[in-house]
Structures are given as C-alpha cells and as structure tokens.
Design a protein that fits this description.
There is one protein chain. The chain is α/β, with parallel strands linked by helices and 267 residues long. The chain has 10 helices and 4 strands. Helix 2 (51-74) crosses helix 3 (81-93), helix 4 crosses helix 6 (166-193) and helix 5 runs antiparallel to helix 6. The protein is globular and about 60 Å long. Mean pLDDT is 77; it is low at 24-31 and 196-216.
C-alpha cells in the first residue's frame, strides 16, 4: 500500500508533515481483530506465529477496545460523568504533538510513500527532513514507551477509588500511542533509507545535482512537486499560513485540519 505524504512550510522554519487519508479507502481485512478475550486467545494459540506477531495482535485488540470505549464517551449525555471524561480526554489529546500523530499514520501495511511538496523546496532537503523526523521518532518514542510501560503498574493502584481509573487508561493509551509511533518511525526510516545510504547522501548531493530527480527516486519513496500546493502557499507571512489557506490545503490533499493547525501553533 502506498501512502501519500504532504510536506510544506507552515510558519517560519516550521514544516508540516501529514499523511493524506483516502476517504473512499476500505478497511483491510487483515486489520480485523478478535472482539473477545476468548477469540483472541483462540487465535493466538491456534496459529503458529512469532512472538512479535502475537504482540501486534494483542496491541490491536486493546486498541479496538479503547476505540469502542471512546466512542461510547462521545455519545454520552451532556453533563454526565462520561461526557466530562470525554471533555478531559479531548484536552489531553490536544497536547499530543503532531509529529507523533504523523508517525502513527505510517502503518505496517505501508510499502511505499509518495511525497507531495512545493517545488520551491529542494527535494533532497525534503527527504532529509523526513529522515530526521523518522530517526528522532525511533529514539524519542522508544524512551517514552519504556517510561509509559513502567507507569502502568503504578496507575493500577487508583482502581481502589470509586471513580473511573483515568490515570491508568491515559497511560495505557500513551503506551499504545508511543508503540505505534515507534513502529511508524522505523517503517518510514526504512522506506526512506532504501533510496540511498543516509551517511553518504549528503556527501553525494553535490555530485548528483546534474542528475534528473527521477534517477534519485526509489520504488519505496517517490518525491513529486505539486504546483497546486505551491500556488496555495503563496507569500506566507512570519505569522504563518492563515487558517483559510490551511483549510484549502487540507481539502485538496485530504488532511486533518486539527493536526495541521498543531504544527502552526506548536511552540
């Protein structure tokens, strides 16, 4: 499966990295997970799979349960306890960095990436920035994943309280989120590194300036300049792109407006 990535400057030296979501894409059958603990155990015990594959299945099972619980909070009556928990959850989610959301979008099913960017940017710089965010993600989210796993047993102590164990579920979500971001970082780095050796890419750049960009492409990473994106960017001010322009870009490339605005408002 090919993922379409969109890269463009959004405010000063800040760049936005986002993945297009195909609104007509159907869910892959391989993404279907068991709905019960019994079904999960049956699938794990009946099929001969490596430990990491069973771990993925367990993570998907927990994720499915968390998503269903979150959907239940969304439809809760106004003013109820569930509605207040949902509001608190939205505030916490607003603090999640957009780079984490971007890396999580690079799922294990992705086999190649197509990068759309304004032609005013050097394609090799675009590739290096993508590689940098992937390499940073592997280090950062591995560290946070270990920290979240360490906190999980501690937050179970709050189950003695006559209230929903919000700390436990939040730490559980963060554990899952860092796991997915780590997997996405490693996947993206692999797809980008198939282009060339990261250690020699910068050194060879001066020797490759006269080569057509198509020769620098890899089957797993294709960079395509977008004139439409360039026209929408126009002359961005130091305050960054205005919301109207961001909305137009999101409509054109099927991006999540809330995630894109996070890049502009990131301190």
């Amino acid at each position: 499966m090919r993922a379409r990535l969109v890269v463009f400057p959004i405010k000063g030296r800040k760049w936005c990295f986002s993945r297009s979501v195909d609104p007509f894409a159907a869910q892959s059958p391989s993404a279907v997970t068991p709905t019960t603990v019994r079904g999960l155990w049956k699938k794990i015990s009946s099929e001969s799979k490596p430990i990491n594959a069973n771990a993925e299945l367990l993570v998907d099972f927990i994720s499915d349960k968390m998503n269903k619980a979150w959907m239940g909070l969304e439809i809760a009556p106004e003013g109820s306890m569930k509605s207040k928990i949902h509001g608190l959850g939205l505030k916490l989610l607003a603090r999640v960095k957009p780079s984490e959301i971007f890396l999580k979008s690079i799922s294990k099913e992705v086999t190649s990436v197509q990068v759309s960017y304004p032609p005013s940017l050097d394609p090799r710089l675009v590739r290096r920035r993508l590689r940098h965010i992937a390499m940073s993600g592997t280090i950062l989210h591995k560290k946070y994943l270990i920290g979240s796993v360490t906190l999980l047993p501690l937050t179970t102590a709050f189950t003695v309280l006559p209230l929903p164990n919000i700390p436990f579920f939040w730490v559980l979500f963060r554990t899952y989120s860092h796991w997915r971001a780590l997997q996405g970082s490693e996947k993206l780095l692999k797809l980008l590194s198939n282009h060339s050796n990261p250690e020699t890419d910068d050194a060879d750049e001066s020797n490759n300036n006269n080569k057509p960009e198509q020769e620098a492409q890899s089957p797993t990473c294709v960079l395509l300049p977008s004139e439409e994106l360039y026209k929408l960017l126009g002359e961005a001010s130091e305050e960054g792109l205005d919301e109207e322009t961001i909305v137009e870009i999101c409509k054109l490339f099927h991006l999540n407006k809330i995630d894109v605005l996070k890049y502009r408002n990131l301190v």
